[in-house]
Amino acid sequence: MTRKSMLCAGLAALLSAGSFQAIRSTSEYRAAVASYLASHPVCEHSANTAVVHSSHVVVHHRIPVHIAPWRAADTNNMITLCDPPDRTNGCHYRCGHPGGWYCYSRKPGKCRRKP
User: Fold this and answer.
1) What is the Cα–Cα distance from 4 to 2, expressed in whole angstroms?
2) How many angstroms separate the CA atoms of 67 and 69, rounded?
3) Cβ contact 34:57 at 8 Å
4) Residue 65 lies in a domain
5) Which residue range(s) make up the domain with 16?
6) Residue 54 located in a structural domain
7) pTM (2 d.p.)
8) How many whole angstroms separate alpha carbon 84 and alpha carbon 102?
9) 115: in domain
């Protein structure tokens, strides 16, 4: 069994136990997020559209962890988006969760700028 398949099996087991936070607390997940953020420290949407936002950024999953737990630590499923303190004016909300926090977009880096 490969390391990736073991990680996927472990994450799926945690998810089936109903603990999304448990996935985010694994060392593999935290290492993947830290590595991604180190190599992508700026909002990837704002940088593409020359919009300046606050320095608050988060690593967003293109496909949410609750839908694809095996992709929780997959850096190809991550994008850095700005998330200012008000939580509604940044790219994380507007592009990553269009329509509300429980919605998601598979192409969060492709959303339009706020008019």
Assistant:
1) 5
2) 6
3) no
4) yes
5) 3-110
6) yes
7) 0.70
8) 18
9) no
